[in-house]
Each structure stands twice: as structure tokens, then as C-alpha cells.
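pinging the channel bc i need a second pair of eyes. not urgent but kinda urgent?? the chain im working w is below, pasted from the shared doc
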Amino acid sequence: MKIHLIAVGTRMPAWVETGYKEYAGRLPHECRLELIEIAPAQRGKNTDIARAKQQEGEKILKALPRDSFVIALDEHGQQLDSTQWAGELQNWMQSGRDTCLLIGGPDGHSAEVLQRADRKWALSKLTLPHALVRVFVAEQLFRAWSLLANHPYHRA
């Protein structure tokens, strides 16, 4: 089973790449995390936001591996705590299907991406910096794995 983190955005700051690699690298082979970056649509003063989201959404949908379980990270989604993430990770590992976590562009996901998603999750009620979400997701996946493995990383 592989977890794909499909994220709109390229050329992240060094601290993002370092943080992401730190946590992704801690995950064991049986639930490895792969980052797929999607180039954002061009935005300017007169950008048609709906069109930009649609362009990004088309690229995200093309990047989805066949028959994968898809979770769109969306502000209106369900919020889970770390223990619930661990339960979800356990289900993914047992299913044998690849899982995709989708990070949209600065204006969120297109309607088509949200329709394709099997689940919608919200990471927080807070507004998070777009680049930080990659690190946050990688850390929470490592935390979920550590809970399942009875590793001392997580302290309830």
C-alpha cells in the first residue's frame, strides 16, 4: 500500500521540503508516502478563480492512481483526532488499496475533485499556510503509524 500526497504547488521553501522529508522518511515501507506536486494555475489580478480551480482539479484527477481511495483535504470536511487518523491508516493498510490525500490550490478544490473524493477531511478550523499542510500531513501520518506500532512518539 502506498499513500500519495497530491498537492497543488511547486517550488516550496527549503524548510517545507526538509520537514516533509523528515516525517515521510520515518514511515515504514508498508505505508510509504509519495509526494506528487501539481503545478498551480496561473493567477493574476483578473484571474477567473473558478477556471483556475478547474484546471488544477483536472491535473489532480489525472494524477490519481487507478482504484485508489481518495481523501480531499477541505475546510468543510470531517475533523479527526490523531487516534482516528491511526484507525484510518490501519484500515488503508488492511485494504491493500493505494490512498490519496489531496491538497488543493490557494482557492481550494474544484467541484469535480470533491465529487471524486471518497471522504473529505478538514485538518483544522484554523487557516493553515498552504506549504505547512504538507509537513502537517506527513507528521500526522507518522504519528498515526507510531500509535499503531506502540512507538513512544505519541503521548496521549
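so The mean pLDDT is 95. and The domain at 2-148 is CATH 3.40.1280.10 (Alpha/beta knot). — does that match what u expected or am i reading it wrong
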